[in-house]
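Subject: for your reference before the review

Hello V.,

The reviewers asked for a structural picture of the protein, and I figured it would be easier to keep everything in one thread rather than splitting it across files. Below is the amino acid sequence we used in the manuscript, unchanged from the supplementary table.
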Amino acid sequence: MGSPRYEMRDVELVEPDDRDAAPSPGRSTAPDATGPGRSATTGTGAADDAVEPDGRRWRRGRSSAPSRPARRAWAAALAAALAVAAGAATLVGDHREQEWLAALADVPGVLAPLEGPVSEAWRTDMPLWIELHDVAGMLVGVTDTRDGTRDVDVVAVDADTGETVWTVPAVRSRLAPLRGVRCVVPDAAEGAEDGERVVACLVVDELGPSPQDLSRYEPTASRLLVLAVATGEVLSETSVDATTSLAAIGTDLVVMQRGTDGGVQVVRTDPLRTREAWRFEGPPREGLEEYTSVRVDDGLVVVPGQSGWVLDGQGDVVTSWSRERPASSSWAEVVGGRTLVRPLRDAVGATSVTDLGSGDSFTVDGYPLTRATDDGTAADVVLVQSSAGEGLEAYERSGDRRWRAEGPDAGGLVILEGRVIRVESERMEAVDVATGETAWETAVPSASQYGLLTDGRLVLRAERDGGDVVVTARGVEDGRTRWQADVPDDVQHLFVVSGRMYGYTSEGLVALREGDA
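And here is what came back from the structure prediction:
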């Protein structure tokens, strides 16, 4: 959102050089200034009586026309008043913008406001996967395994310098899957310092063929590893059921696994698993027909599968579904705290959409956009990328299609102030959420892997300029280029952690900051 624009025009005050040419006070410059209800003023300045429409009489003395000094003072006062008004309007606009940007700071994936180009500030000496947690001045995550090794470490690096603070070995098995370690960081307990938080990691040590599908592999041996964020000290390490998955909710963990009766079991517990807040158990032999992961979206616990549930933070059922045709896949999530999205296994490209408020459901031919940076101004519609990838569609919550924007998605989408900003082929456009009309569009290079970022005023994208990679910042309001910045050529993906920009490379994490590095 750019600053409100106010136009100031210079006013030139002109005084006559020939004073004798100026009309004398009390003398009309018109041949006859007399009109209905009006009396003419004589050249002598004599007073006439005038009568108002209501019968009141008043006496005109000398002409009321101001003198030149008075006119100059009046004009100066007017100019000053206009300047003050414009300044006040600017201050009000700036204040509103600051309030809006402050509200955006709580939106996941939004950058802190950028005033100019970015450059490399530091780089880690090890590759890190993009799922990072900013806690106690550190970035906590796991090493990436794209270099061919399966060894995985849990790592904390200084968020200001990139220097390694601590490293804990997690996987030392050639049979472990890519990114076989998933870590979450629960909130700090009431009264605790940020540095007293813990990081809980599900470590998959071994894989084996799935009983339901021998061509697919699932975990056969897993551990729950709990570390102190400040030091990396191992606080707990326990073996868990191979079907286990976990997520953070508030200060606790949600742990899901298959129960002894074959049904799904979900427990909310403290990170060290010494206290249970609640336990949910599904019907016997329903749920977890195959390996899947529990999710927490906007405080709601999503238990996916052919049979599945959405629970609130207290473990109560918000909605559920059972085995049916077409069957649900092993993935589901809640978008914006109110929309349940479930891809359908038996109908390729189809997705079930449920409004959790009304309970209304409908099926779309496509994939609802669940990973977009979103300020909430498109909450009344469900945005869907068509299954064939040739268009973006907006659906009412009743299931009626509101509009369709043609063109395939070419990487990245943000929702700001009632507009969807996306890249379609080699064109970036802003589409009005209410109408589907294009507010602006601009040509851009093809670079689908980089995605789109925003700070609320700018939309940023990494693009290829010959053999170089540059970050281009365009205005959210009009799509015009504001600035460009060279970034390392090995950057493959841009992402945001706690308002800061980072670049993924196969060799190390790159921090991109304003100013000279």
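For the response letter, the relevant points are probably these. Confidence is low (pLDDT under 50) at residues 1-64. The longest strand covers residues 198-209.

Happy to draft the paragraph if you're swamped.

O.
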